[in-house]
Structures are given as C-alpha cells and as structure tokens.
Specification:
The protein is mainly α. The protein folds into two domains: 282 residues, Orthogonal Bundle (ABC transporter involved in vitamin B12 uptake, BtuC), CATH 1.10.3470.10; 131 residues, Orthogonal Bundle (Arc Repressor Mutant, subunit A), CATH 1.10.10.10.
C-alpha cells in the first residue's frame, strides 16, 4: 500500500517537474542555463518591471503591439462585415515568398537584407500579387472564392518555404531571424520598427475614419452604393489595401500564421457587445489594443512564451468572455431572453385558453360564474400537469388569475383585460393572414401563433387601421371553430401544441 502511494505521488508530480526544476534553478546559489526553456514563476520584481514599463525594450514592444492591435481591430471590423476576413489569411501567407526574395535580392546587391523596410516591401509586393491571383482565378475560372483562397494560400506559402530553404544554403546566409516572420518575434523590435508600425497603423485608422460612411455602405449594401454613384471597385480596393498594410506591419509582431487572428478575433468579439458599426469598430479597436498590450506584457514576464501566441491567446480569452457575457448578443443574455419569451408565451397561451373557454360557454358577461375547471384546460393544449400548474402559479403571482378549491381558476379584472388584449391581437393577425395572405382558416391558427407573441404595438395599430377596426377594445370573433371538448374534429384548434410552440 505504501509503495502504491509513493508511485501515485511521483506520477502526480511528473507534470510539474519542469516548473519545479525551473524554480530550483532560480533558487539562491544556482544559475540558470541560457539554453533552459522551462517556464518559471516570475518574482514580484519581474511583474513590477513590466507593469511600470521600466525596460526600454518593453516600452517599445508594448507600444508597437498596442498600435498594431488598434489598427487591426478597426480595419478588421470592415473586413469582417465585408466578408473578406479570410482574404487576410491568404494575404499573410502570400507574403512569405516576398520576404525571402527581398532578402535574396538585397544580399545580392550588397545591402543588409534584414532591414525591416526591405523585408516589408517584398512582403507587400508578394501580398498584392497574391490578391491579384485570387481575383484572377475567381474571375477567369468557374472556381469560387474559397477555392481560389485555398490555392493561393498553399502555393505562395509553399513557395516561401522553398525560398527559405534556398536562403539557408546561401554562402552569405545570415538568414537567422527570417523564420520569426512565420511565428512572430517582438523581442527583436526596435524603436524604428515601432514607429513604422505606429505610423502605418494610425494612417490606416485615419483613412478608415475619413471613409467611414462609404465603407459602411460598401459593407452592408454594395448594390445601393453603386446605384448612388459611389466608386464601389475603388472603395473595395482601398479596403483591401488597408488590410494589406495592417497585415504586413504585423508580421514581425504576430507572424504571418497568426496575423489573421488580430484581424478577425477583436471584431468578432466586439460583435457580441453592439449592433451598430460605429461602436463595433470602436470596441474592436479597444479589444485589439488590449490584446497587443497584455499579450506582449505576458511574453515579457514569461520570456520563453512567444509573444505572437500570447497576443492571440489574450484575444481569444476576450472573445470567449464576450461570447458568453456580451450584451446584447452573448450566450447568457440570449438564453435569458429566450427563457423570458417562453414564459411570456406560456402565460399568453393560458390566458387565451381561459378567455376562449369563457367565450364558448357564454360566461364573459357573467361576473359571478367565470370559474374554469383546470381539467378542461388539458384538452385545449397538450399541457403536462406539472407545466400547467407551474404556469398557473406564476400567473397567480402576477395577479392575473385566482385559484379556487385547488381545481378551478378565475381571471382577475387585470387578467381579464390582459386576456382580451391577447385574444384581440391573435384574431387580428388571423384575419390579416386570411384576408391578405390567402391562408386557409383551418390553418391560420397555427400560423398566427408563430408570430403573435412578438407583435409590436405599432404593428397592431397598423393592422387595426388596415382592417378598419374602430377600437382596440373590440374583440373579433374567431375565424375558425374553437375546440373545447374532446372529439371535436376541427383541425384548426390549438390542441396539439405545447406552450411556447
């Protein structure tokens, strides 16, 4: 038994062995090897150093990645709404052969092939060729855009990997560091790189703000924009050009593989918080900036964690939080609204069933004998006993009805008024469907039941005007026979539906 416990403890500690070894290496009297890639728990001074931006290189990196996240979030909002998000993925992969060719040509002419302007110029040319290839394949062949994206992405990336192999074989080599454009490496960022990223990113943001109205119209209604005389093709080219610039300046920080995440994740996360494009782009800009800032800070605190991956993981965490807790499109708020709608539908079904029962038995005018047996309600709808009693209990708490002797219910004055309104709106919509939509009276009850619970007051007013109803208090007669007793063969009655159907 003791042997089993010892083995179990050793197996439990195995996943933490690298971390324990790292802590032991950082203990007093020990030195950490420069080849040690384990992840250790940072000390307070490390957190303080990054939090207060005490290191010059940390300030440069965080500034550059923050500006990159801001520009990517804003431009990505328009690209996402334009349904061109994956175009950025193909573009980022298409930049790799341009980077390798720029290094080869610069080295051949005796220049420093690792300077960022030279490499980014090659990436821009290669990226534009990739976009041109996608457009050519889409317009000159029968292939759709997704196939063109896949072809260009794989071909250009494969060509880039092959060119990197050639670079490694060059006698003048010195190609170490080019691979960082694949995964990103912010540690090599200098002040000039940060200024380049910042100036290019801010320029893209200013252009998108200046063309906000035109780009919004392009994203939502291209045909209307064309009919109003807007240069749709030129605007589309400008938008793709902005995507090209943002993608290229982000290669060093995030890498060409993960750059698409900064263009897609912040706008997608912002979509859960707003319905308006202005606030969407604003929130996406904030989320992109936070992703770059926090991701770079985490990479500085944990040096062995790549910055590009940390930026993407931070953005992903924000997306998950937005997806769950976002208002008005988050999962929780949508579940809550669906729950509230189902309870509203159940309540309206109950009140309408009671009103129709009283109407069929000529009890609406008899204030002293408006008791409805609960057992008679079961045959009007496919209610389960537990569900019906729960609905009755909630309605009684809202002062809509009263329970008498445990097996009968009576509408209160408030409940009778609410039931009359519900029945009026239901039959108003039924009459509209019969009159203007040619829906048969035997089927109109089910069709009306699908929409009556979400009719706005303005729609009700328009229906009353259209159908020449003088007063909203006038209750229309039912256009079909009400089924209140077993054995009635009228198929139009609502006896086969559950509450909320």
């Amino acid at each position: 038994m003791r042997l089993f416990v010892i083995v179990f403890l050793l197996m439990s500690l195995c996943p933490y062995a690298p971390l324990l070894a790292a802590n032991g290496a950082n203990s007093p009297g020990s030195q950490r090897s420069i080849t040690d890639r384990s992840i250790s728990i940072p000390e307070w001074k490390d957190w303080k150093r990054v939090f207060f931006l005490e290191d010059y290189n940390t300030r440069i990196v965080i500034l550059g990645t923050t500006l990159l996240g801001m520009s990517a979030g804003m431009i990505g909002s328009f690209a996402l709404l334009r349904k061109r998000a994956l175009m950025g993925d193909a573009l980022s992969h298409a930049t790799l052969p341009g980077i390798a060719l720029a290094f080869i040509l610069a080295t051949s002419f005796g220049m420093n092939g690792k300077t960022l302007p030279v490499l980014l110029s090659g990436a821009a040319i290669s990226g534009l060729l990739g976009i041109a290839s996608i457009l050519m394949i889409r317009n000159l062949t029968r292939l759709k855009e997704d196939a063109a994206l896949g072809i260009v992405l794989s071909v250009f990336f494969g060509a880039g990997v092959a060119l990197l192999g050639i670079v490694q074989q060059m006698q003048t080599g010195h190609a170490a560091g080019l691979e960082s454009f694949i995964y990103g490496k912010t540690a090599s960022m200098v002040a000039s790189d940060a200024w380049l990223i910042g100036s290019a990113g801010l320029s893209c943001m200013l252009i998108s703000i200046f063309l906000y109205k035109e780009l919004t119209l392009l994203c939502f209604d291209e045909g209307f924009a064309h009919s109003r005389g807007f240069p749709v093709v030129l605007l589309d080219m400008i938008l793709m050009g902005l995507v090209v610039v943002v993608t290229i300046i982000g290669l060093q920080a995030v890498g060409l593989i993960l750059m698409i995440s900064l263009l897609v994740i912040p706008p997608a996360a912002a979509r859960f918080w707003t319905e308006k494009i202005f606030y969407l782009s604003f929130v996406a800009t904030i989320l992109g900036a936070l992703s770059g800032m926090v991701g770079s800070a985490m990479s500085a605190i944990f040096p062995n964690l790549p910055s590009g991956a940390m930026i993407v993981l931070v953005a992903t965490s924000m997306f998950l939080v937005s997806m769950v807790f976002g208002v008005p499109r988050g999962i929780l708020i949508r579940k809550l609204r669906r729950y509230q709608l189902n309870r509203k539908v159940d309540r309206q079904h109950l009140l309408r069933s009671i009103y129709e029962y009283l109407e069929a038995h000529n009890l609406l005018t008899d204030q002293t004998n408006q008791l409805v047996p609960i057992k008679d309600l079961y045959q009007m709808r496919s209610w389960l006993p537990a569900d019906l009693h729960s609905i009755i209990h909630r309605a009684s708490q809202q002062d809509l009805l009263q329970t008498v002797d445990g097996n009968q219910i009576r509408l209160t004055p408030l409940g009778l008024t609410e039931a009359a309104r519900i029945v009026h709106e239901h039959r108003l919509w039924e009459l509209y469907l019969i009159t203007y939509a040619d829906v048969a009276s035997s089927k109109v009850d089910r069709d009306a039941d699908a929409i009556e619970h979400v009719l706005e007051p303005e729609v009700i007013s328009e229906l009353e005007t259209l159908l020449s109803q003088q007063s909203s208090t006038d209750i229309l007669p039912s256009p079909h026979t009400l089924q209140l007793k077993p054995g009635n063969s009228d198929s139009s009655a609502p006896d086969s539906r559950r509450p909320g159907s």
